Amino acid sequence: MSVTPATGREWHLVARPQGWPKPEDFALREVPVAEPGPGEILVRNLYMSVDPYMRGRMNDVKSYVPPFQLDQPMEGGAVGKVLVSNADGIEVGDHVLHSSGWREYAVVADKSAVKVSPETAPLPAYLGVLGMTGLTAYAGLLEVASFKEGDAVFVSGAAGAVGSQVGQIAKLKGASRVIGSAGTDEKVRLLVDEYGFDAAFNYKTGSVTEQLKEAAPDGIDVYFDNVGGDHLEAAIDRLNLHGRITVCGMIAQYNVTEPPAAPRNLGLVIGKRLRIQGMLVSDHQHLKEQFFEEVGAWVRDGELRYRETVVKGVENGVDAFLGVLRGDNIGKMIVSFED
Ligand code: NAP
């Protein structure tokens, strides 16, 4: 008897959002589950990642990743258990990381699946602290921003998956001062009390420029940008000579329909000789092993802490995604497929 279930649920994009996505832009559909062909595996997804970059894939524009197709399943990082394997080196019962999320069952080519072990780390960690967002933080700070001991670092989106790791890695690597911004007082407290940031502020309750000035009286050397807009403007104001900016994300702009008003002070880049560099985590795969070893050890020893916000049920996938854009999450937002 086949172990392949007859049907499974998957999320389709059914309309391209204008501004903030609405629940009606998505549909959870029950579809037949395909049998895997030669060199393929059938995976029952256990956890999926919902990420801010997915908002960009909902627009029909040329970008570094192709747009989601209408009436097709969306994609994204997921970890699941192998139900059927026609692939050498992958056994039934193995756990794999792959990019066919947003669905309960996925047929995945062997070369697109990476085996992961629940003994080495809890499975959701492969989507967050030891996964894509973790590597983004590691590479974005150490390689893109050329972080060096003694630097003062400011990171926005600091209580999120990438941001919370940037700040802690900076501390572990000898930053002179680490400052974070976040959107609630609870998140701000977490940054200082649990993650060891030297200072943090709530960007919703005051001017970013003024609060950053107070938090960084001697300026900053590195700004890790997850937000854009007023945060980028404030950082440019506060950066010291030869400061570096890693532009990782601009979440404040993902749902706007008008161009942003800031930064208005780009001219300062000249006199301060600032370096502004965009990054894509996919360019930094060569650091993966080093990252996994170093960050894995910090996590094991409790030197680097992390949180996850876990939403249960595939049917709540879109709400979890919208929650990331709203700021509902502390740390990595994960959807668990177990009820
Ligand atoms: P995350 O920080 O875990 O979640 C997003 C957070 O952004 C929310 O929790 C929310 O927290 C904050 N936010 C939402 N709207 C905001 C606004 N208007 N102004 C300021 N903050 C806002 O997400 P993540 O996965 O770690 O991603 C963080 C950033 O990195 C995103 O911009 C993402 O696109 C980018 N990224 C880039 C790459 C790359 O390769 N370049 C890879 C991964 C992620 P608050 O409560 O604090 O507002």
Which bin fits the share of residues in helices?
10-25%
Helices and strands, in N-to-C order? EEEEEEEHEHEHEHEHEHEHEHE
The structural class is alpha/beta
- Percent strand equals 25-35%
Reported for the largest beta sheet, the result is:
7 strands, mixed
**What compounds sit in this structure?**
NADP nicotinamide-adenine-dinucleotide phosphate
In the CATH hierarchy, the third-tier topology of the largest domain is known as Quinone Oxidoreductase, Chain A, domain 1
Just give the CATH class of the largest domain: Alpha Beta
CA-atom Rg in angstroms? 21 Å
Euclidean distance between termini CA atoms? 26 Å
Query: What is the total domain count?
Result: 2
Count of alpha/pi helices: 8
Mean pLDDT: 97
Tell me about this structure.
This protein has 339 residues and is of the alpha/beta class. The chain has two domains: 7-128 and 306-336, Quinone Oxidoreductase, Chain A, domain 1; 136-282, Rossmann fold (3-Layer(aba) Sandwich). It has helices at residues 132-144, 161-172, 185-193, 208-215, 229-238, 268-271, 288-300, 317-326; strands spanning 7-13, 26-32, 40-49, 78-85, 95-98, 105-109, 114-116, 152-155, 177-182, 199-202, 220-225, 239-247, 275-278, 308-312, 332-336. The strands form three sheets. Strands 3, 4, 5, 6, 7, 14 and 15 form a seven-stranded mixed β-sheet that branches. A six-stranded parallel β-sheet has the order 10-9-8-11-12-13, with helices on both faces. Helix 1 crosses helix 7. The longest helix is centred in the middle third of the chain and has 13 residues, at 132-144. The structure holds NADP nicotinamide-adenine-dinucleotide phosphate. NADP nicotinamide-adenine-dinucleotide phosphate binds at residues 51-53, 133, 136, 157, 159-163, 182-184, 187, 226-227, 248-249, 251-252, 279-281, 324-325, 327, 329.
